[in-house]
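Entry: Fibronectin type-III domain-containing protein
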Amino acid sequence: MAYKNTLMRMAPGSTILPVAIEPDDTGQSIHTVALFPGSVAAGVVAAQQLAAKLRAGGLNAYFDQRKFGRVHAEVVADPYLADSTGDTIPSLPGSRPVAMITVKWYDLPPDQVTAQKRKAYVAAIQKLVPGSLVTYKTHLDDGDWTGAGGNPALQKLAMDTLMSNAAPTTLAKALNTMRTRPASFGQMASDDGYAVRWVPDSSFVSPCDVRTTLTLTGIIVYAPSCTRQLVTAYLAALKTKLPSDVVTSVVSAMHVSSGCSVVTSSAYPGSQQGAAMDLAGRLVPSNYPLNGTVFGAGSKTPVFFAEGAAATGQQRGMVTARHLLLDAAAAMSPTTGKASATPIPGSAFAKYEYKLQPVNCAPGKSCPTLTFTFATADAYFSGLSPGTTYKVTVTGISQNGERTEGLGTQARVQFTTPAGFMLTSATATGPTTGAATATAPAGAFFKYNVTVEGISKTGQRTAGQNTLQFTTPASVHLESAQATSSTTATATATTQPAGAFPQYMYSLRKLGCITCKSLNFPSSTATVKLNGLEPGAMYNVTVEGISKTGQRTPGDNMLQLTMPAGLRLTQAKATGYTTGTATATALPSDAFTKFVFTVTKARCTVPPCPTLAFTSRAPSNQLTGLEPGTKYNVTVLGVTKTGQRTKGANMMQLTTYMFTVKKALCPGCPKLEFNSSTRMGTFTGLAPNTAYAVTVAGVDWSGRRTQGSNSLQFKTPTKSAPPPPPTPTLKLTSARATTPTTAIATASPQPPGAFVKYNVTVAGMDKSGRKTQGINMLQFKTLDAQRPPPRPTPAPGLNLTEARGLNPTRGMARVSEKPAGYFAQFIFTVKKAACPSCPALHFTSNITLGVFSGLTPNTTYQVTVVGVDKRGQRTPGSNALQFRTPASGFLRTPPSPPPVAPKSLRLISADATSPTSGTATAQPQPAGAFVKYIFTLQEVACPSCEPLAFSSTTSVGIFTGLKPNTKYKVTVVGQDSTGGTTAGSNMVSLTTQPFSEGPSINGTESVTATSGIIDLLPPSGLTCARFIVEMCPMPRAVAPCFNRTCTSPKCFVDGLQPGTVYGVTAVCREGNGQETGWGDEGTLTTLPALSMKSAAATGPFTGTAAAEPQPSSAFKEYIFTLKEAACPSCVALVVRSNTSVVTFTDLKPNIQYNVTVNGVDTSGSTITGSGMAQLTTQVASPPVPPPSGICPGYQQHLWHGHGHSPSRWKLHRVHFHGTTFVRRA
């Protein structure tokens, strides 16, 4: 057992099997096998390390001489494949036979075995086995069996010899010859342990360790170089397409003609050849296999796979594909053009076929497709038509004739040749005049030079002496108007000449709505985005071009725009543990006859994801069968009468949190359960002055239901009397003199009416500033208590006060309203008095004066009026008045001009545009009556707060700096050019929006120990210009939180602490500076860090080292590696430890070692440590002689090593002597 333990200390992790013990001279010979667990490659390295120690000598430093006497090795074999008993395993794939034998020189001391003699020895063996490969390693038999310290004269040189590159039978025959006829090689003798054994080659794969490897060759097209950042991003995108248990690394990255070629290797945990081939069969032939804006379709660097190979042991499979990407196409002249494409891989095609199809072919005209074939991917076209737009396609043709269609975006695959220009007719219009016509593509030219040439009767040609020029007027034409969503659209115009106008004004008027105002959209480009449109509405779209001088040119046509019906979720909330409700809004309201609400678990990563569908005829429905404490994504689908299906424009999330509340001191009392759709729970019906314990069940970021890990307690307060009313306050608000001896002062009580009596005192101040207090005080009572109760407000009403004819076809009427300013609109009805069955005429006005046109001369009319208030409700009809229009054709006193309406101002709308901004629109009468508008906003819930005032030179006010989720009263005052102002207008309210839900955490990944990537999911319907990410070390009391700002949803953060869990949440900041609220919280756990702290020698053969982990408990195992500083090619010593401090044994004396460390974390991942430490072992002391009177015995050590999976080593024979031997005379 002591012998085995000694060898196990020399070879940590090995299993030692002594297979035979026999006497040899005065010592014992022990044949031993060392077994190494793990892979073949690791076993070979460990066996070679042990062999190096054995051949180096100095074994007495390892073996306790009090137990073993003096020890040395006689035979050391190389590693080979064997079973668990040490017998060799022949003929495995990837292995070869090797003959192993140890031969000693008996007739020469070691220093006389020259290089020539060694070559002669090798040559003799190669003569014995022609074509064989012969190598050897040497060690000394130091002769210490002759006595303490040995006898240098008896030292022998042993050659551990290997023969290969021959058949096993040939090698066995050669070994037998060397054993039975050693004289053939000089005075030499071989030791035991010789045999033909099988060793692994570099391609050997153990039957016990077969894994599938998938190798993918990806091309990052258009990448100018293979930067580290690019390859890292590619690897991260590729991992999203691979199974989660596959370990992927980059084999190579090099720049090729089509971009950056990256070869990766993905190791499966076991034999999965079929799954790997299926994955390669899907990825490699796919166009744009990696999604996203970096490597997907439409990106600057799309990715394609050229090859995928799967290997499992000797089983191989491969998938290849060819891709072709159309890069660009452009015109070179009116009749020529060019194009280029990128083949993947570069040698994929033998020729390229380009086709050019005219896009703008006139109806009835034949426009044939042009075909061009080239041997390279660069193409040049000729014979094209001027002023023609061509759509370009390309097909790659391989050597075997297989065709591959090229890919390309719309911007890349079309080009237009420059315009051609020619005369089409020339005719005489008179004896001295004529007309000529030229054709050119629309908008190609706007100036023309005119010359003339005369031809006499004799045919003589005479050129004109000058050139005249004319310019065609600029024009604008609407080309298209298309809806892009239920509330947005785009319109595009063209001009002649191109770029004739620096500004455009697009106008939209809603069909079927006479009172609706036109929507105007100014633009500095010919294409404009139209926002804020009504779903399901129809609009007439027109355009005007605006010159630099402000002159407007109307467009020559009008287009009709039909908006699709709109559908949007407005509510999704939990109503119970397993129930919820969802509500949608459709525009127009009757657009859909059926609604389908779909509920899916959020973050479902293992398809198929279960989906619940709820169908309803109404836009609201109950959701049942939900799981408590689970987050769901809710969407809606609308179905029209014709069966057309329209997806809702947004998605909402529904989460049920289940809070359980139980009396802390009453285990048998029933528990109370409360459901909440947010992370805050509110509990009702509790007993006062009682301690309660509360737990919660929620949902993590992956969508899984999680029971809370802790319980908290709270105590309800004792029931108390209602709080006393607030103490009233009183403040002087003004004081001014009214005469030389009188003054007036005003005070403001809070709350109003808090006081019924007031005491008044006075103090005077003379010219010198001296203050004198009055000698008395007076008291008065308020009048509020003595006033009678207010009278009820009379119902609003209208009264016609005047009606008369203005001319034979026009008339007017004036109305009086009570209360003043109550009505927003007046509708006058005018009817012939003598003809009750005649149709009535209706006229609308926003003021109390109505003017009527289109009347019949010399006719009596009866007029009535109806008022419409700001809520859209109508009053009953007013009184009726009659008037008569004058007869036409008679001289009469000219009618007096219609009365001029007084200037008035009315607010017609007020809306919030964001949580902190809004707008309001006023309507002046008459138009242009005011040069300045002052808008005032007062918080409804805070009458004492300071009002906000905003000035505008137009009737539209824009407000900023408002409070989110707050209701304001808005009024406006107008100021005319003379400085006069109107009284306050009517009041309209607006309520700002609450901050919208912030971004959610889609996933996190630790890149290094101090950095990571946070994958954010922007809020639905918002475009985030920036993300503000808050990082909080968990638990939150450990360290303060900090923020990072990112411009993309893939947010890279650094400056983190290794092995730390961070709580992560984010805010979305839009381009206009508006921010959402904080989103849901996720977590990011950084990788642990490991570095070398120190290393030192503690003796000639021992040392110690310490590593520094961050955090201290991050690693379950430490792997220390020692390499001789002066011998980089020497085999390294590897020591494993479950602590960060380790002790080394079996080192060499007076040697400097470089020490590094790796760590295995709690998840089983290996982390590479940083830094290196050095230690230098001490010089060894002379050996201690054995006790006197002990006869030094004969030591013979014969070691044979061989590998297996797990690898084995065989120590074939070890001899020792010592206290067990008989004394000699």
